[in-house]
Amino acid sequence: xxxxxxxxxxxxxxxxxxxxxxxxxxxxxxxxxxxxxxxxxxxxxxxxxxxxxxxxxxxxxxxxxxxxxxxxxxxxxxxxxxxxxxxxxxxxxxxxxxxxxxxxxxxxxxxxxxxxxxxxxxxxxxxxxxxxxxxxxxxxxxxxxxxxxxxxxxxxxxxxxxxxxxxxxxxxxxxxxxxxxxxxxxxxxxxxxxxxxxxxxxxxxxxxxxxxxxxxxxxxxxxxxxxxxxxxxxxxxxxxxxxxxxxxxxxxxxxxxxxxxxxxxxxxxxx
Length: 271
Description:
alpha/beta; 34% helix; 8-stranded parallel beta barrel; 271 residues
């Protein structure tokens, strides 16, 4: 049976100068600009027919603070599709409190790399379906990796970063994806720092490298500028879901337009 490909809007949330939650959009994880209110955007995408919704607290890990759970609860009140929340999740209690606030799944990056046992603890306590391992990947053109891909005529590997892409780890993304799946992750959320915000398309070599090496569902993220980019990451990389932000936030395309474009090209889409 062919599984339906999912279309997932995402909001990157930070605290503004007044300490209020706000959505920001940037390029390569930098130069963030105010985009809107998280609750209003959640309501918009719930009504637009999105398959799921992702809420990322983009500075919680780097600042060593907890996820903004009050905002998560307010978003969950307006969101009747599966909600994934990430940012600042370090312990089993953090997972529990985030799910209690209204999330259906949690996305974990830094906390899992620092202590991989968290994946097993979360899967055992709440079910693998609740545990999404997020990877903020960047390309490296040296000999320190484990799995290599051809990119623009050069051989590169993909490094896991932590704290919102601020710190490298030396860990190969494919190696980490395999370990995360083995430890019980129910889904892998693959972000490309190189493609983020460019609207030039997803990092297909990165996404394909992960999809080719794990059976766990993979969400492709970063770089989407058009429905054609989603078609490409589904057909050429094998992604199970495609996440996008800017094209939806700035109403360049609607969720419905994207879905109809993909359905017309024979992809299994829930209309």
